[in-house]
């Protein structure tokens, strides 16, 4: 939803012409036209098939399939500790990403003793294109299906979700629907709610829209974007999902995130803490950007210790942190880096 707006400026799409009409006295007609073009241009991710398998990082894995309401989705199950029974984590990638870009996170989690399931969200990775726009609703439904698959495995005793960007919102929404079946959630670089995300895309695309127009236009555009699949805006809000979910939550953001600014972390944390402050932890990674947070030792330690505490093992939190800190967790090399203005990796 966000990448194509920045990589292909909206001025080239004829949207500014529609905006000009709004400023000349046709606000509703022009604003609706704007929203329709936005949906057509930003609702369909460009394909980026996986470029590496877990074996590239020395991880043994099994090919498997997530049976989602949106279809069958390819996935990898990566067992830890020689497949001994224990906790597992579902990895939910971001927009225009795929499961191979989550492998550095899998490396961190595997080192800390957790089984991992990585999959391609519908319309992404090795999946065919979708006929309808993709939103957080589809990320959440696919994450929920992946969670169910992981928890049903004989090696997995309990499970959590870890997502990045739109995948983080999907993870939070899925966790809120799972209730106490989900042991914990780790949210990385998540936008606080759909309308603020849409408003941010206007800024990233450098659209010359005055603020009195931009905010209501973002509200309308978000509603039009979600209409084909029948989603309600409030149901796809990370802040509302974080407030509804009753389990442990770790909210992580990079201090230098230029895509989803760090103030989104503050909004998420306030919402999550409204019910039970003690269950919520936050981490602002100094010098961190929108992606590649796994390259920061502070992130690796925080995630491993948080999940170890939430799961009650298999290692003590301090040992899990040390194990996670010891892995390189370097980003997966890409053959096409041009799309990375917003979803840089993972």
Low-pLDDT parts are 1-25, 336-346
Q: Level of helix content?
A: 25-40%
Shape: globular
Could you give a short account of the major beta sheet? 8 strands, mixed
Top-tier CATH class of the largest domain = Alpha Beta
What strand line-up does the widest sheet have? 1-2-4-3-5-6-7-8
Spatial gap, N to C terminus: 16 Å
Quickly give the CATH architecture of the largest domain: 3-Layer(aba) Sandwich
| Number of E-state strands | 8
Under CATH, the homologous superfamily of the largest domain reads: Alpha/Beta hydrolase fold, catalytic domain
Q: Quickly give the structural class.
A: alpha/beta
Q: What share of the residues does DSSP label as strand, in percent? A: 15-25%
- How many whole angstroms does the radius of gyration measure? 19 Å
Supply the number of helical segments: 12
Mean pLDDT: 90
According to CATH, the fold-level topology of the largest domain is Rossmann fold
Number of domains as seen in the coordinates: 2
Helix and strand succession? HHHEEEHEHEHEHHHEHEHH
Describe what is shown at a glance.
The protein is α/β, with parallel strands linked by helices and 346 residues long.
Summary keywords:
346 residues, alpha/beta, Rossmann fold, 2 domains, eight-stranded mixed beta sheet, 16% strand, disordered N terminus, disordered C terminus
Task: Summarize the structure in words.
- It is a single chain.
- The protein contains twelve helices and eight strands.
- It has helices at residues 3-7, 15-23, 27-42, 103-111, 136-152, 166-178, 194-204, 211-226, 238-244, 263-273, 297-311, 317-325, and strands at 62-68, 71-78, 86-92, 115-119, 156-164, 182-188, 249-254, 280-285.
- 40% of the residues lie in helices and 16% in strands.
- The chain is an alpha/beta fold.
- The protein folds into two domains: 1-42 and 204-232, no CATH class; 47-193 and 237-325, Rossmann fold (3-Layer(aba) Sandwich).
- Strand 5 (156-164), helix 6 (166-178) and strand 6 (182-188) form a beta-alpha-beta unit.
- Strands 1-2-4-3-5-6-7-8 form an eight-stranded mixed beta sheet, with helices on both faces.
- The protein is globular.
- Residues 1-25 and 336-346 have low confidence and may be disordered.
């Amino acid at each position: 939803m966000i990448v194509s707006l920045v990589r292909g400026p909206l001025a080239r799409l004829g949207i500014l012409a529609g905006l000009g009409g709004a400023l000349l006295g046709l606000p509703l007609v022009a604003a609706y036209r704007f929203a329709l073009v936005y949906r057509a241009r930003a609702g369909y991710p460009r394909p980026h098939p996986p470029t590496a398998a877990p074996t590239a990082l020395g991880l043994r894995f099994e090919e498997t399939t997530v049976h989602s309401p949106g279809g069958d989705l390819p996935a990898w199950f990566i067992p830890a500790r020689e497949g001994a029974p224990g906790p597992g984590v579902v990895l939910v990638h971001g927009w225009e990403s795929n499961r191979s870009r989550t492998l550095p996170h899998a490396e961190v989690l595997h080192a800390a003793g957790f089984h991992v399931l990585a999959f391609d969200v519908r319309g992404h990775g090795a999946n065919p294109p979708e006929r309808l726009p993709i939103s957080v609703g589809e990320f959440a439904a696919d994450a929920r299906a992946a969670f169910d698959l992981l928890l049903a495995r004989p090696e997995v005793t309990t499970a959590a979700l870890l997502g990045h960007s739109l995948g983080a919102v999907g993870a939070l929404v899925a966790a809120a629907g799972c209730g106490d079946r989900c042991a914990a959630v780790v949210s990385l670089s998540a936008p606080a709610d759909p309308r603020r995300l849409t408003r941010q895309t206007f800024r990233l695309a450098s659209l010359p829209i005055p603020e009195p127009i931009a905010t209501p236009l973002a509200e309308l555009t978000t509603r039009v974007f979600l209409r084909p699949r029948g989603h309600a805006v409030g149901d796809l809000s990370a802040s509302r999902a974080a407030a509804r979910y009753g389990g442990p939550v770790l909210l992580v953001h990079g201090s230098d995130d230029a895509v989803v600014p760090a103030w989104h972390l503050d909004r998420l944390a306030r919402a999550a803490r409204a019910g039970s402050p003690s269950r919520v932890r936050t981490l602002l990674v100094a010098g961190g950007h929108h992606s590649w947070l796994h390259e920061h030792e502070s992130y690796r330690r925080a995630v491993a210790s948080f999940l170890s505490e939430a799961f009650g093992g298999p290692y003590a939190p301090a040992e899990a942190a040390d194990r996670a800190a010891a892995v390189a967790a370097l980003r997966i090399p890409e053959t096409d880096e041009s799309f990375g203005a917003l979803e840089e990796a993972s």
